[in-house]
Amino acid sequence: MKKKPAAAKAVYTLADLRDWHDADPPVRLGVFGDPVEHSLSPKMQNAALEHCKIDLQYARFHISPNELRGAIDLIRKLEFIGVNLTIPHKIAALGMVDIADENAKRIGAINVVKVEGGKLHGFNTDGRGFARAIREEFSVDLRDLRVMILGAGGAARAIALQCAKENPERLVIANRSFEKAQKLADELRDFFAGPKVLGPVARLQAVSLEETAIRFQIGNVDLVVNATPVGLNRGDPSPIPARLLAPHLMIYDTIYSAGRTPLVSAAIEAGARATNGLSMLLHQGALAFEIWFQREAPIEVMRKAIG
Ligand code: NAP
After folding, report:
1. How far does the centroid of ligand 1 lie from the alpha carbon of residue 106, in Å?
2. What is the CATH number of the domain that holds 32?
3. Phi/psi at 147 (nearest 5 deg)?
């Protein structure tokens, strides 16, 4: 007699993919990360699958950097629908797919893979997810804002490119390693050649993530986005000193693991509007669902699942 498939595991590994035993419903989607145990994506995507009556499951996969190539090859063989990629795989995975869309290539990282016709397609939904989150949280579009991004890594690159495409009033990139901020600004310079005139401050600027430079900029920005991991761990400080925060600011911390990150707490204390990155997680996930299934994602069901 045929054995009944087992329940899905809390976390799968590369060894599981190599010796695949299906679950019920079958696992055909997942997130690859290291660490991955705390990812909220399974909750959100499984709620969407169930709501849409798609008889599949989305699971966590603990995949280390040296296992990524093998794991990606296996999802093709096992005919997965696709996967999400999280820390630290987004950049490396770009080089492992057959086709990447223009947006992902320009960012230099992917967070979504879709398997189609035996080929792996790479996408990046972080930037568009961020833009939707800002509209939802602050009822304003990026094009009407002066934006400062803290960080110049994978998330910051996706957010900065999205901002550039939406033609904001101003974009400041502040990073610990100044050269990386400068390089990112240089890559985006073409987007800022237009006629918006702001007086003495430059429309596109790279600065060091240190107090004097931030103090100089903060009076000429509306939205501050934290795209560094500072605030992720217990005991972390705010990525910029609380004394620099002012009531006119909107603060978006892309970190979503804690209810109130140190930056969000400091901003609220200063009378500013502030929120963590749960809405960006939701919208990048909804966009991934739409890529995989070519249908609208049940956004409210997904929101409720992670709320
Ligand atoms: P990443 O590529 O490793 O980049 C990290 C960035 O943070 C770099 O610019 C780095 O500066 C800076 N940084 C790291 N440690 C720092 C420190 N101690 N002080 C100051 N700057 C520091 O990481 P990532 O993929 O962009 O992810 C960044 C964060 O974005 C993650 O923590 C995650 O929470 C968040 N994120 C959220 C979502 C969402 O859906 N809400 C999606 C994606 C990412 P250097 O260049 O100087 O090293």
Report:
1. 18
2. 3.40.50.10860
3. -115, 135
pLDDT tens-digit series, residues 217-270: 999 999 999 999 999 888 999 999 999 999 999 999 999 976 799 999 999 999
Reported as type and span, the H/E element at residue 111 is: none
298 lines ligand 1 (CB under 6 A): no
Question: Residue whose CA is closest, atom 21 of ligand 1?
Answer: 176
pTM to 2 decimals? 0.95
Report whether 191 contacts 164 (CB < 8 A).
yes
**Could you tell me if residue 17 is inside a domain?**
yes
End-to-end CA distance of the chain: 43
Name the pLDDT band for 168 (thresholds 50, 70, 90). Answer: very high
Query: Pick the catalytic residue: 9, 90, 114, 119?
Result: 90
Which residue's alpha carbon is nearest to atom 31 within ligand 1?
Answer: 229
Active site residue 196: no
Look at residue 201 in the predicted model and tell me its pLDDT.
85
Write the CB contacts of 115 (distance below 8 Å, at least 6 apart in sequence): 75, 76, 79, 80, 81, 82, 121
**Contact status, residue 199 vs residue 170, Cβ threshold 8 Å:** no
Full DSSP string of 233-285: STT---SS-GGG--TT-EEEE---SSSS-HHHHHHHHTT-EEE-THHHHHHHH
List the domain range (segments joined by +) for residue 112: 11-124+280-306
Tell me the per-residue pLDDT of 145-154, one tens digit each, with 9 for 90 and over. Answer: 999 999 999 9
Domain count, the chain: 2
Closest ligand 1 atom to the C-alpha of 126? 42
Residue 6, domain member (yes or no) = no
Distance 78 CA to ligand 1 centre (A): 32
Whether residue 285 has pLDDT greater than 70: yes
Measured from the Cα of 257, ligand 1's closest atom is: 34
pLDDT confidence of residue 1: 46
